[in-house]
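Risk mitigation, structural track. In case the binding assays with phenylalanine fail to produce interpretable data, a predicted complex structure has been prepared as a fallback.
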Amino acid sequence: MSEKNSPSERQSLHGQWSSRLAFILAVSGSAVGLGNIWKFPYITGVNGGGAFVLVYLLCIVAIGLPIMISEIMLGRRGRRNPITSMELLGREETGSGTWKFVGVIGLVAGFLILSYYSVIAGWTLNYFILSSKGTFTGLMAPDVNQVFENLNQSFSTQLIFHTIFMAVTILIIAKGIRQGLERVVVILMPALFFILIVLLFYAISQGNISEGFTFMFKPDFTKIDGSSVLAAMGHAFFTLSLGMGCVVAYGAYLPKQESIFKTTYAIIICDTLIALVAGLVVFSIVFDNNLDPSQIAGAGLIFKTLPLAFGQMPSGVFFGSIFFILLGFAALTSAISLLEPSVAWMIERKNLSRGLSAIIMGSIIWALGLFTVLSGNELSDFTFWKGTLFDNIDHLTSNILLPTSGLLFTVFAGWFMSKKSSSDELDINRKFQYKFWRFLARYIAPIGVLVIFLNAIGLF
Ligand code: PHE
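Fallback model:
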């Protein structure tokens, strides 16, 4: 290892991104995924709309923004997998390598998230096939619901698509074709955005956009409590891929001269915009069909609403199939970022080949995914704490593990890292932005996370 060099000269063992754009696309590819299009509308529905969205947006700016800057900075300074980077920086800045445990929490979270993420991504693949066969053409809401219920109750269909999705993820990581993927993402992300805009036009012309808009942007604070605020914060972490180490891992390949501030702003704007457009589209369709968001909202929300729109619009078979396959690709670029840190760790620390590491880690995650597959059928009555096994894995990861390790990443960056080191990485010429980041990272983000935690368990 290159500990002898000064930290700012340390080099990654895996090369660097070809350009700032490549980095922005890779992190956006990680950030934009099922979280924006599947999860955001669904939890907004469960948590009553406007007030939840407002808290979520506040969390993005006050907590997500400084933590993303901190994570990219830690990655670029450490230039290793998240665990080793934290160990290295911990030793340099505080004399203790124990900080590596922050990376470990993130790694565990990534494992658990990918286990269910792959099952939901499998649903989108299944919907791609159903859409292209014209299954939804002319269907009304109850029939569209039934299609989803059938899928959720089928162990074998979910298993097949979960297995296909995990196999593709493993293959890409095993080949290490980050370059290839970079190129694909350049086309796929704008294409997905384009289809969302088509859907938005559909929602404006055919759906009930005004009620959708009111539901999403008119806050009614009586509808939220401590646990919805926690869910909003958890989602801010989830959607920006924070607290898991993948942003740290990607930051390790960022060239020294690139501005971390500018890249972060671009990523956050892109991620937030996509979620808001997806939410508007979904709720315009919900209200247009006289569905009740508190009744229909659940993990099946987009699978019960979007096919209704595709079933009725001209060229719906075309747009529907393209939409679900693109969503599958968006999920793939996120899934890769969920698997990469643990595989990078295995290669660097256990000396295994990339292929073998990807297969071992991927298979464990695949097996864990069976719990989610079973949550809709055999084990649907097996509920405790927050609900089914799937509900519990989701709650534990998004709302507890990600915020905890994200909090520790930023506390390290703001309080334990010397001002000299952080300003060296964040560019001393941007004084105002640096000061603003440091203020958010030292005070606002940590206090925000703690208050929301304490509030959710009723202590505040
Ligand atoms: N951000 C991704 C999404 O919104 C999911 C993800 C979470 C990816 C955590 C990496 C790490 O779909």
